[in-house]
Amino acid sequence: MRVISGEFGGRKLVAPDGTTTRPTTDKVRQAVFNSLGSMGVVEGATVADLYAGSGALGIEALSRGAEHCVFVERDRAALKALRENIAALDLGTRATVHATDVMAWVPVMRNVDIAFIDPPYAFDAWDRLLPLVDVGMVVAEADDPVAAPEGWEQARSRRYGRTWVTILERLA
User: Fold this and answer.
1) CATH superfamily of domain region 26-170
2) How confident is the model at residue 23 (pLDDT cuts 50, 70, 90)?
3) Residue-wise pLDDT tens digits, 127-144
């Protein structure tokens, strides 16, 4: 796994061992960030990488000009890989790591523009999670398209192999 483009383009990332995380492939990350780049929303943004795993989505955002990333992850192996990646890229001042459960942390999330939500396989709590997320945009990675709850609209939804990426925007 590597950073696709931007400041850290080509740099390798450490991935956690095991099957508790859903690694986002290079192809999917490139497609996601091409879409976000065409929307002009990453540069200068504060982002959250929820269910961060290795931190690949948040690190890609930082590489492409996001100002700060909040990483939320509770799995020990994933936290070890995430912290190694942040240290290797010297991102300490642009990254905050919360070693906690996403559902417990999201209600206190503040000042985030985009939330990347890539939960483990078979996650089925989108209807409980999304109403708690107080951001303008969500990039959701799942086994199926993520339905837009009340107050949101689906901006884009695209399938990449077995993975669906859905971009939701909060209605004003």
Assistant:
1) Vaccinia Virus protein VP39 (3.40.50.150)
2) confident
3) 999 999 999 999 999 999
Contact present, 154 and 166 (Cβ < 8 Å): yes
Domain boundaries, the chain: 26-170
What 3-state DSSP class applies to 20?
A: coil
Q: What DSSP letter does each residue of 50-115 carry, written as one string?
A: ET-TT-HHHHHHHHTT-SEEEEE---HHHHHHHHHHHHHTT-GGGEEEE-S-HHHHGGG--S-SEE
Residue 50: count other Cβ atoms within 10 Å of its Cβ: 27
Tokens of 162: 């077995």
Nearest Cα to Cα of residue 109 among 136, 74, 140, 133: 133
Give me the mean pLDDT over the 108-127 stretch: 92
User: Is pTM, for the whole model, over 0.85?
Assistant: yes
Distance CA 85, CA 14 (A): 6
Q: Decide: 135 and 50 in contact? Cβ < 8 Å.
A: no
Percentage above 70 pLDDT, the chain: 97
Tokens of 40: 């002009």
